[in-house]
Specification:
Length: 161
């Protein structure tokens, strides 16, 4: 865990096999903020790449519909340990900050070099949302979708069947 200006930050490392194409959200009016989803697919996913990630013991994370990332099990556990130690006030503030940063990134035209930052911020937001949702252990993260509502600066979690 890093501390910046007295604020705890979670550092997430991802396996460097980000697959997909750079995303660009719909063009938004100046006062609108992007709405996006982060999905942890279940074992019943039709995507063979998701199954390969799961067979390696890692966490697949779909950012929108275009980017599939792989979070190594070791990085997941390390980041989770940081997330569970955060006080509620910091957890809420970091969730809002991560969501806003990710919204801003998705509104821009991304280069392939930006995908690492995109995936890192998405992983942080996803793990914080899981913690806020009440998941007790990293190994208990269910198949679900986290939907970020930029207008309200909040996330919602929907369980997948």
């Amino acid at each position: 865990m890093k501390t910046v200006n007295g604020t705890a930050t979670i550092e997430v490392h991802t396996v460097p096999i980000v697959k997909g194409v750079p995303m660009r959200s719909e063009t938004l009016a100046r006062d609108e903020i992007a709405v996006f989803t982060l999905t942890c697919p279940g074992h019943d996913s039709a995507d063979a790449r998701v199954h390969d990630i799961q067979l390696r013991g890692n966490l697949p994370l779909l950012i929108g519909t275009d980017v599939l990332a792989e979070i190594s099990h070791a990085d997941l556990l390390e980041s989770w340990e940081t997330a569970i130690t955060l006080p509620l006030k910091d957890l809420n503030a970091m969730t809002t900050l991560a969501g806003k940063r990710l919204s801003e990134m998705l509104e821009e035209n991304l280069d392939s070099g930006d995908l690492t930052d995109l995936v890192s911020d998405a992983a942080v937001l996803f793990l914080l949302a899981m913690r806020r949702f009440g998941v007790s252990e990293a190994n208990r993260i269910p198949a679900c979708t986290v939907k970020w509502n930029g207008q309200e600066a909040t996330e919602s979690v929907q369980m997948l069947a």
